[in-house]
Amino acid sequence: MIPYKTIIQIDRSSKQALYIQLTNQFIVLIKKGRLLPNTKLPGSRTLSELIGLHRKTVVACYEELILQGWVESVPQKGTFVNKNIPVIQKQKLGDASRSKKEISTGFSFTIDPILDRAFPQSYEEDFIYINDGVSDGRLAPVNEIAMIYRKLSSKKSIINHLGYGTTYGNGSLRESLVTYLNETRGLNITKDNIVITRGSQMGMYLAAQLLISNNEYIIIGETNYSSSDTTFEFSGGKLLRVAVDENGLDTNAIEKLCEKYPVKAIYTTPHHHHPTTVTMSAERRIHILNLAKIYNLAIIEDDYDYDFHYSHAPILPLASHDKNGNVIYVGSVCKAVAPVYRVGYLIAPKNFVDECAKMRRFIDRQGDAVLELTFANFIKSGSLDRHLKKVVKIYKNRRDLFCKLLRNELEGYLSFEIPRGGMAIWATLNKKYSWSTVSKIAKKQKLVIPEWQRYDMGEINHNAIRIGFAAYNETEIYEFVKRLKKTLEIVKGYENN
Amino acid sequence: MIPYKTIIQIDRSSKQALYIQLTNQFIVLIKKGRLLPNTKLPGSRTLSELIGLHRKTVVACYEELILQGWVESVPQKGTFVNKNIPVIQKQKLGDASRSKKEISTGFSFTIDPILDRAFPQSYEEDFIYINDGVSDGRLAPVNEIAMIYRKLSSKKSIINHLGYGTTYGNGSLRESLVTYLNETRGLNITKDNIVITRGSQMGMYLAAQLLISNNEYIIIGETNYSSSDTTFEFSGGKLLRVAVDENGLDTNAIEKLCEKYPVKAIYTTPHHHHPTTVTMSAERRIHILNLAKIYNLAIIEDDYDYDFHYSHAPILPLASHDKNGNVIYVGSVCKAVAPVYRVGYLIAPKNFVDECAKMRRFIDRQGDAVLELTFANFIKSGSLDRHLKKVVKIYKNRRDLFCKLLRNELEGYLSFEIPRGGMAIWATLNKKYSWSTVSKIAKKQKLVIPEWQRYDMGEINHNAIRIGFAAYNETEIYEFVKRLKKTLEIVKGYENN
């Protein structure tokens, strides 16, 4: 008999029932081969005395082991380890040494270099991080949203929203968004044209998966939102890049590509091109829509910062001018409220929306109907409008201060156009310097310039990055400019030596 | 001059500023070709008088049109439609007739028949719907969850969770789940082995996308959870089916397939096989793990109803016995709490978890950190445990009543084993009848048997479906059995005539 008294360790403070602890320890003994097939277990009274547990506990454990098939009870003879348990394969390194190491997969899978562009980050206090244009979480109406969430959850009717539901997204939210988007973006859509997504990223992902398969062509900007590059490449697409100038994507270049290749789609951010912040001109808007019609292209229009315009009215999206069903319009409330609330939408002709809703079923089953209802309420009550009015004013002031200070303090180092909206500037570094050096020196000034490579996936050496201003308050803007100036002065010093 | 007075319609009750309304109407006129390139616009004073708007509004509109590039201002001459605006393509059907019809996409995309298995449903009152084993929303601790959510949202520290964050999921939730899963499932994982997902469906989707590409083989049960069939097929995988008997997947059949094909993965629900509810035997558990080691297989273990066991302790998952990194374990709190809260996890060796987290970035960017924190709190405080204890007791009673009534009332029609846990039975209809006929007759009894086809994707004609019991209270169980009995008696009457 193996030394049960030493081997079996019961933790009386554990939440787990004693008989389950005992059962699991027997299973381990059987699996490790310390109790071989056909071994007789001690009688329940004997074991109970040996290990100091109540006999009923031992009996419950044996019953459990029988139920699970690890042991068998032979009448008049006793309880035996099941003779059909195969001996478990020994591991090459042995249990003890192996368990201390990190185990890797026992199967192979391809580490996709495309996905490596996820650029993970960690944050340290006291550091200022350059972001590519995010909102200020401190201004998010998180309390108001949580209050609506709480109130809705206490209503009896919430019960209808707790189970498995539609993959199109909550009906009220779809209705509120239809009204809101028709009013603010000049769209002319109905509920049939909208599927709720988890932010615009999911809209882009759905469109990519359904449109682009192996080696199909998609046109993007020479500089482009890097996540969309990855999303389309992960889907198997081939990227064709066209230049971006002060009027947006070069539509003549698009036309030439369409003549040459069987292009499937164009990805564009016409309101403010990502990353350069330029607005697509009226001529090109019409040109691109005409090209889409002629070549049966899908235009994936990512309208990520429509709500943020300071010097002029927003320019209506391509989707508002699309009469031929070429535009797939993706957007979200993430930028307007806070990124954590992954509430977005994809707008397209009904036949495409239906396919998206079907696909959604297999990605994450469905959205969060309670949160979606909360946002339906938040939009309908006018809170979203009020919130936007408030933050747009603040961000405009921040833009003005930020641009003024950069112009005054960093002349000769950085050049940029004052953006008419959005949350970031497109800052070109004097060719004498490189972001690579600047980012190294900046770190010593507690200023982090992450991911600067991703702004030049087309490798045209523009020497520019996006610098978000909206998330910094006045004090932080001064501090940011101070640190960047110090950094650039040090870099200049190096150059001169 | 075109009749501006008739054409331009201003809605003073609209939220939109007057000058924006005016601007947008000019844009439409330009795009429709009613205002051709080089057309001179009326002076601001003239237009202001014509249409009854303040002159400043007209000036603001013209400035906006200039900014957007639709018109040009020529000094001393006036304002002209931009000469470079290309004339927009006429539509084949003409604007008016077209806009009344539903527009389809102006681009082509493949309607994937695989995705058509999404089986959409709608609900009518007074009808009883057969489900495949869902929890009762009326028991969901929705109020408690909303209270935690609200409380967390009012804390100052919430600010750290509102922005763009990690794609692994909230750190506190990962920690709570590590402790919880190690305690309850006998796992031995650290935070490095877990990535938070939106329910187990997303875990399965990530695993499928990363493991299975074109025409790679995955083994599943002859009867299987149909969503997983679709998930793997959508990813390009080829399904190999093995029989399922009272001990779960036939592992000898798996071994034969592995000898013959380069199998990549096995999908299994060993705790209670979906749909048949059988538990995989201890022998086969060891066998399948050994096969995985020998053939370098990934075992995707979907432990969807581990928390629900009535007659015995739960059987520890394969993941708890996996020393070689073969098991990818997916689960969620959706079944335990309510499907609407899409909080799940994927557990695997770190190298695979890292790749999942990278891919996640391009599906929906990240999870909902506020909800994830809420659940971290809900688990840590012991509320999840308490809730489970409560509902398991209720579901056990429902199972007992349900099975007793079915046995008493429907003998000769239906046969089934009493499941040891879970939320559904696997009910085989007497071969004399078919679910096709039964479901037609049932509808007249206000009883809906949806999606019965999906239980036999392997087409082995087992004539069985899952019937969920957990969502019905006592009254509803009696009513359900009454309607089903009536239905079957009618069907029997047909057969006898």
TrEMBL record, chains A, B:
InterPro entries on file: Aminotransferase_I/II_large, HTH_trans_reg/aminotransferase, PyrdxlP-dep_Trfase, PyrdxlP-dep_Trfase_major, Tscrpt_reg_HTH_GntR, WH-like_DNA-bd_sf, WH_DNA-bd_sf
Keywords from the named record: DNA-binding, Pyridoxal phosphate, Transcription, Transcription regulation
GO-annotated molecular function: DNA binding; DNA-binding transcription factor activity; pyridoxal phosphate binding
CDD domains to which the protein is assigned, alphabetical: AAT_like, WHTH_GntR
Record's keyword annotation contains Transcription regulation: yes
A Pfam family: Aminotran_1_2
Domain HTH gntR-type: from-to ranges: 16-84
Superkingdom of this protein's organism: Bacteria
Family according to the record: In the C-terminal section; belongs to the class-I pyridoxal-phosphate-dependent aminotransferase family.
Name recorded for this polypeptide: HTH gntR-type domain-containing protein
